[in-house]
Amino acid sequence: MSHPQPKPGILGIAPYVGGKASVPGVAHVIKLSSNEDALGASPRAAEAYSRAARKLSRYPDPNCTELRQAIGERHGIEPERIVCGNGSDELLGLLCHSYAGPGDEVLYSQHGFLMYGIYAQSAGATPVMAPETDRHADVDALLAAVTPRTKVVFIANPNNPTGTYLSSDEMGRLRRGLRQDVLLVIDAAYAEYVSRNDYSPGLELVDDGSNTVMTRTFSKIHGLSSLRLGWCYCPPVIADVLNRVRAPFNINAAAQAAGKAAIEDVAFTVLSRAHNQVWLPWLSERMVGLGLRITPSVGNFLLVDFPEEERRCAAAADIFLQLRGLICRRVENYGLPNSLRITIGRDDEMHAVVDALADFMG
Ligand SMILES: *Cc1c(COP(=O)(O)O)cnc(C)c1O
User: Fold this and answer.
1) Which of 1, 122, 170, 311 has the lowest CB atom count within 10 Å?
2) pLDDT band for position 39 (50/70/90)?
3) How do 329-331 and 326-327 pair as beta strands?
4) Which of the listed residues 88, 216, 218, 343 should we mutate to test ligand 1's pocket, taking the one with most ligand atoms within 8 A of CB?
5) Which domains can be identified in the chain, with CATH numbers?
């Protein structure tokens, strides 16, 4: 062969495609395609980011000491068991690569976050999907899909793009049904938006043993998507593994400073959450009012199904919306060819998307 070949499986990966941010020929767009927070970042985070500009020549703290301290205080957990990542995506990847390889299986749910399959393939492991019931992760189906080769189970709770969640009882049942040597990764990227009494992000399951990790992100409710910052809460043995394999300076200084300010600005998080609690049900009701089927969501986004007929299908709706500068997310690569995922945006953005869809359907 005339040039270096990547490891088996790598060229089989379909690259991840993020939400569109522009429409050719449209100057002003409304971006509802990546589940970014409607209110954006705390002004204090932006100030901290600016202050970091004064020290650009210095390496950042390799251990994110102050940031982990702040996260620990906010969540009542030990900073030693927190590992930060360049987005929670980095942590999902490092966990997959550290615990699964060729011959192993990585299990997730049918409409689970796309990156789980991508990381499984890049680690040389075999991705395995368990069917869902009514777009909810199905614990029995997941457990039935476990084999002696299963090494890692990923579950987004709530899940993207469906917006559905597993109760803490169901998540506990999943954990108890898995072998002790199977790593369960609970991806709680949208945890802060959920307001259900039977939901828990999973801290107690992490505390219960040495085989469960919970990941979180600053990209969603904290509005810091551009800085790439996530964290996970781990058993000490797993934190130790991640600290061996991660790059030494994986979190830049601006992200550390802004992340600390963001997590300390509790009042701002409360505002973002309250905004979502108003507009998620509002959007859901309007969609149902237009005759569109929705999947009830607990996140900051809504999955909407379109009629089968060609001029009313999701692809047609997407084109129609884009001509008005509204960008939502097609989710055919999640096995949902006739749905759009709409992020909860600001008041005016929500009115714009509902008005446009009313015209589309009318
Ligand atoms: C957005 C999202 C993430 C967050 O990714 P970051 O790398 O932290 O920006 C993780 N998991 C799911 C399911 C998501 O939707």
Assistant:
1) 1
2) very high
3) unpaired
4) 88
5) 19-40+267-361 (3.90.1150.10), 43-264 (3.40.640.10)
